[in-house]
Design brief:
By secondary structure, this protein is of the alpha+beta class. 28% of the residues lie in helices and 10% in strands. It contains 3 helices and 2 strands, in the order αααββ. The protein has a two-stranded antiparallel ribbon with strand order 1-2.
Length: 114
């Protein structure tokens, strides 16, 4: 088989060649971080949410503003105020009171107050 012959293209190759060498490595692309969905929680109670709050929350075993906020899709500040109101009515019992976290539980003996 005879040796292959190169086709003549005007003396220049079709693609310009880049100079080969060590060159720079590509810069590291930093990730933008995890993107969270924006919460669209209620600022005030509507009639449906108010009924759901009064019906379901006193039956929860662990009641915190965070739990109420997540389950009922209400703001944390609204959940805090509503839980204070439930505690005053005697529907829930306070377990722990801290400056930044309050924990309630269901009231098993409604007539027994501490």
């Amino acid at each position: 088989m005879p040796p292959k012959q190169q086709a003549k293209t005007g003396g220049k190759s079709q693609k310009p060649t880049k100079p080969s060498g060590g060159g720079k490595a590509k810069k590291k692309k930093w990730s933008k971080g995890k993107v969270r969905d924006k919460l669209n929680n209620l600022v005030l109670f509507d009639a449906v949410t108010q009924e759901k709050f009064l019906k379901e929350v006193p039956s929860y075993k662990l009641i915190t503003p965070a739990v109420v906020s997540e389950r009922l899709k209400i703001r944390g500040s609204l959940a805090r105020k509503a839980l204070i109101d439930l505690h005053k009515k005697g529907l829930v019992r306070q377990v722990v009171k801290h400056s930044s976290q309050v924990i309630y539980t269901r009231n098993t003996n409604p007539e027994e107050d501490e």
